[in-house]
Amino acid sequence: MLAAAPRISDAQAIPSGPSRLRVLDLLRFCAALGVVLFHFGETRAWGTPNAFPALSAVTMFGVYGVRLFFLISGFVILMSAWGRTPGHFAASRIARLFPAYWASVLALGGLAVGGLITDHRPSLTELLANITMLQHGFGVRDLEIVYWTLWQELVFYALIACLAAVGITYRRCLAFMGAWVLLLAIADRVNADLLQAVLVPFSAPYFIAGMALYLVHRFGGSLFPWLFVGVGWTLGLYTALDGEPTAVRKYGQALGSALVVGVISLIFLVMILVALGAFDRIDWRWLTFLGALTYPLYLFHHHVGFLLIQWLHPALGNRLTLPLAVAAALLVAYAVHRLVERPLQPRMRAALDRSLTADAGRVPLTETAAVSPVSSIPAPVPTAVPAAVSSPAPYAETTPGASYLPRGG
User: Fold this and answer.
1) Would residue 14 be called left, alpha or beta, if left means φ above 0 and alpha means ψ between -120 and 50 degrees?
2) Which of 5, 35, 165, 170 is the most buried (most CB within 10 A)?
3) For the chain, which residues make up each domain, given as ranges?
């Protein structure tokens, strides 16, 4: 059976399906909505930890939406980086992440100045560190509780940029994932803080599995990518069950563990079906709109929901306040997308791309000195260099082929 497996070439791939996997937009929105419902159901703004006893039995699993985010990121970020230089990849990620993020930091900082806080009034130094999105690396408290996932994503982007610097191919991806898994085990064994910080053990199983599923999607199924999917699933379950999840505390060891295994397995199963093209027919254009709301919804929902729930539930009751808070969070997400992301993202991307080629056409100073600075005697004209030994052309940066556009990014 293994001998009959198709050979994989690094040089080419045959993409199939639509030019954008809109089902990933739907999955990203569902993951964000799951996180929203989890936070809104558990927030102390209700004044009680049991505001929705029956509903919380379901919404408590919304916390696993973050793991779905990481699995999708492994798939989409490798797809976005394939064929790009590290510079162009970095430009695309910066333009994608920072406009809405800066709006979030400034808005939440303004609310904090006005006394509208959830649980912590940030200092000026904390606000400044949060503007960089690197606050976790500096050991500074996140302004918003959801920001911790952004550090995980940034580290993953840096690792993918390193891979892009040597050139992304099928076999290099396999080697990259294999080294990542091995170093995860070593870092856990020797308790190496630096390796732990670079390898992001919490999210790494999902990033690795997502990358492997993209290889399946792009090149077809073969043994090595499926092995990495299995490794990601196994390590994901290990980390999820090792920390005594809420389901275990609520339902007991046997049932709670089974529920956690079921939810994470379902997440992997859905992404496996995406990689195999089972959802390629789901190509409705309005799903792209839902995908566009996902990031600002994730960034803004916690503060918006906390404040509204705190203000409204004493007068309106819990059952009416909850859908109003969700609707308000969606409305804020749309406003941020429409007023911040849509105008700023393309401008920032264009400016960053221009900056990458700012040295194009510039001649070094030593080549422009046709006249000696000490004498007015013209410098001797150099003889022509044979074509066979002429200087190489400047480094030509590549962009993804038009025949295979990133999907769902």
Assistant:
1) beta
2) 35
3) 22-357
